[in-house]
Amino acid sequence: MAKLNSAAPVPIWAAVKSTEVAGISLCALEVVALALHVRAATSARRSPAARRPYRFTSVALALLVVAGVGFAVAFRTGDKGWGPVTLVAVVPRLLIVPVLLAGLLSMAAGLGRLARWKLAMDMATVLGASLMLMWYLVLGPALRGGGLLQPLRLGAVLFALGDVVLIVGVGSVLLRGPAPAARRPLSLLLGGTVGYLVIDAVFLYQVVHGVGPEVLAPAALHLPVLLILLAAVVRPGPAVAGAVADRPLPGRSWLPYTALAGGYALLVVAAVKTGMYPWLGLVAGAIVMTVGVAARQVLAARENYALGVTDSLTGLANRRELRIALRAAVDRQRRTGNPMAALVLDLNGFKQVNDNYGHAVGDRMLVAFAEILRRTVRAGDVAARLGGDEFAVLLPELRRGEDAIAVAERILAACNAPLLIGGNTLHLKGSIGIAIAESAADAPELPHRADIAMYAAKRSGTLGWVMYSAEAVEAERAAAALAEDLAAAVPEGQLRLLYQPIVALATGDLVAAESLVRWQHPRLGLLGPDRFIPAAERTGLINEIGAWVLGEACRQVGQWQAMLPPGRSMYVSVNLSPVQLEQPDLAAAVLAVLDRTGYDPRNLVLEITESALVDDRSAVPQLEELRRHGVRIALDDFGTGYSSLRYLTRLPVDILKLDRCFVNELNGEREGAAVAEAVIRLSQILHMDTVAEGIEHEAQATELTLLGYRNAQGYFYARPLPPADLEARLPRVGSAAVPSKPGS
Fold first, then answer.
1. H helices present in 583-673, as ranges
2. Residue 422: in which H helix or E strand, if any?
3. Whole-number Å distance between alpha carbons of 204 and 344
4. What residues have CB less than 8 Å from 331, skipping those under 6 apart?
5. Computed over its alpha carbons, how large is the radius of gyration of the chain?
6. Are strands 495-504 and 711-712 parallel, antiparallel or unpaired?
């Protein structure tokens, strides 16, 4: 057993035979390394992830010390068989392999599913080459002649197989690369492990071939132990385990090819030599190695194809794959005659997400929407990303046209749930165009037609779906022409302002006016905001129009205020578009208008809707700045949004405007007044004013007064009026108080 024992990776008993000084110094170095790794594994200065690898290496070093001492004692006592002392040395030596391998792998970077398969194929190549090398140097000679249970032969086989496992593990770590901040300690640990493997292979070869293991002094093992020791001194950064590799280790991509070349070179060497013993293991290793290479190439081919037909960010199909799927669907439709459909989807407000939160958050929103598509489309449907925030879904086979509508509605319903991305709560808002082909002749035009319908959906502003039709095509053309005409609306003085009175419920006296913009189109006549505001938001003209509305309203109401009796006042309410809220200079622009017109900011109220506040990182600071200058903020259509209470707790809101849908529910019964009563109580607790919208009957006004509402507007009092008509009402301003600012 003497020769076998000298083949251990740390053969201290053989080192004592060569030189006791070197053996003792090596043992001392191992103990120091063990102490340092234990300290690294328990250090409070390291994160839990950074401590985890050193727990494994500490156990491995402890086993190494035990094995070394066991071999030294076995040599001193002359135990050459499978006695207790030898078992104490051999078993820890074998256990070192899985423990040390676990420590190495815990410092390596994490991999995705496809990358793990590629790694497995690469490691099959390394495994085959390692088996060939160990078979040729150790396993084949050890097994030749029988007597496998003899200590020399069995020990050489077990140690060699352990070395093969460790070689494959080292190769795996090299190919995966280090986790961030683990590069230096992992490099040192790998260097020490590779050093042990080389020295161990030399010892095993000397033992099996009887060339005198004592020739290799234990001094050679000092360097590997020193490298492992230094791995505990170098401090890794946080989150070592499970992270993505920062950059690859030098030359690691050549490992499978090096293993392949080495394996076949070994076959050539064995072919030159005589004897049959190497061939069984060499052929088996070559088969494993070749299968690994072949499978790796198959995976690479599949990956290359996937890269060509898959969107790299979301993993959905790209335009090319969608065209391929469309051709296949057309062929199927010719055979079956069943209708097919396409959906084109666009995320509204995505540019603002990128501008306000950064492109990283925008990318994560796109990935989240891709997951929604995967969950909501049917099996066999093809979801694709066309580019930017535009997506498509191909429905290759339908039983009836309503199936396409059902898919669109499932997608829209899934978008209602808020997304938490990077600490920001965001909401997906989409528009969907649907096109259905009843025959194969119409199928190639499906994406284009769905695109037209999608733009029609965006123009509608309903955040819903629109089915392609001849009317949709005509509406798209008309909308494009209208957008072109809109550019001249402000320069040529085509915009008009109407004013709807806001009155005191108790007296009916005028206390304020809401400004409402109209467009006097040269050909189409007077257009309401629903006809042109969506186009203004898409083209960016909304900022120019909004500035004109604010300036004109302040000028006009400023003139009216000068006509009021002493001590009387009124305020003007101006609506802000969600797009205007995204302006980084909104507050400065509003204050500039107030300064130019000389209008008192305390008599200005800016109305915003709940949906406009979804992405409020830029909007909230702008509104707070305006509020510091005296401008008040009203939350329009209150109660119809999805997060009203959350907004009220953190946004600078002064006035709640009860939506007309809740006013319509007033019927003299407690149930009908439940929401209206809840809103007035909430406003009183939060020290906010209220305005009830959409009053159409005297009974509604009476019930709102009894509930505690002070101000209201609606057709019961007046429709939106031209400036001259509202001016005629000014003498009726009575003693009703103007809604005051909170705290005044």
1. 586-597, 619-628, 644-650, 660-663
2. none
3. 67
4. none
5. 39
6. antiparallel
Q: Are 739 and 711 in contact (CB under 8 A)?
A: yes
β-partners of residue 392 are: 344, 384
Pick from 532, 517, 393, 524: which is nearest to 461 by CA? 532
- CA 39 vs. chain centroid, Å, equals 37
690, 680 Cβ separation under 8 angstroms:
yes
Residue type, 583: Q
Of 90, 91, 86, 88, which Cα lies nearest the Cα of 74? 86
Q: What is the pTM of this model?
A: 0.53
First to last CA, the chain: 97
CA distances from 130 to 136, 142, 163, 197, 278 (A): 10, 16, 9, 12, 14
**For 174-215, how does the pLDDT look when each residue is reduced to its tens digit (9 = 90+)?**
766 666 666 778 778 878 888 887 877 777 777 777 665 444
C-beta separation of 344 from 453 below 8 A: yes
User: Within 10 Å of residue 391's Cβ, how many Cβ atoms?
Assistant: 28
Answer whether 238's CB lies under 8 Å from 104's CB.
no
Give me the residue label for tokens 């494994």: 56
**If you ran DSSP here, which 8-state letter would residue 218 be given?**
G
What is the rounded distance in angstroms from the CA atom of residue 655 to the CA atom of residue 633?
A: 6
Distance CA 744, CA 739 (A): 10
pLDDT at res. 276:
44
Among 413, 383, 378, smallest CA distance to 399 is for 378
Q: What angle do CA 585, 544, 542 make, to 5 degrees?
A: 90
**Tokens standing for 531?**
């006809």
Q: What is the largest CA-CA distance in the chain?
A: 121
Determine the 3-state secondary structure of 266 from DSSP: helix
Strands (E), 354-421: 382-387, 390-395, 419-421
Structure tokens at 530: 């629903």
CA distance 66 to 52: 22
Look at 68-72, 396-400, 568-572 and tell me which has the smallest mean pLDDT: 68-72
Q: What number of helices (H) and strands (E) belong to the chain? A: 28, 16
Q: At what angle do helices 113-134 and 277-309 cross, to 10 degrees?
A: 160
Residue 135 has what DSSP assignment? Answer: I
Determine the Cα angle at 270 with ends 124 and 207, to 5°.
Answer: 85
DSSP state of 739: P
Length of the chain: 744
- Burial (CB count within 10 angstroms: exposed 0-12, middle 13-18, buried 19+), residue 628: exposed
Give residue for tokens 């509608």: 460
The SS3 of residue 730 is helix
Tokens of 557: 């109401």
What is the residue whose two structure tokens read 């251990």? 8
Instruction: Please identify which residue in the block is written with the tokens 């705290």.
Output: 743
Q: Is the dihedral of CA 223, 227, 229, 233 positive or negative?
A: positive
pLDDT digits (tens, 9 = 90+) for 669-709: 888 889 899 999 988 988 899 999 999 999 999 999 999 99
CB 92, CB 66: distance < 8 Å: yes
Burial class (CB within 10 angstroms; exposed 0-12, middle 13-18, buried 19+) of 669: exposed
- Judged by DSSP in three states, 613 sits in helix
233 to 228, 241, 249, 473: CA distances (angstroms): 9, 18, 20, 71
From the list 367, 362, 364, 340, the residue with the least C-alpha distance to 351 is: 362
Distance CA 81, CA 606 (A): 94
Q: Is 67 within 8 Å of 260 (Cβ atoms)? A: no
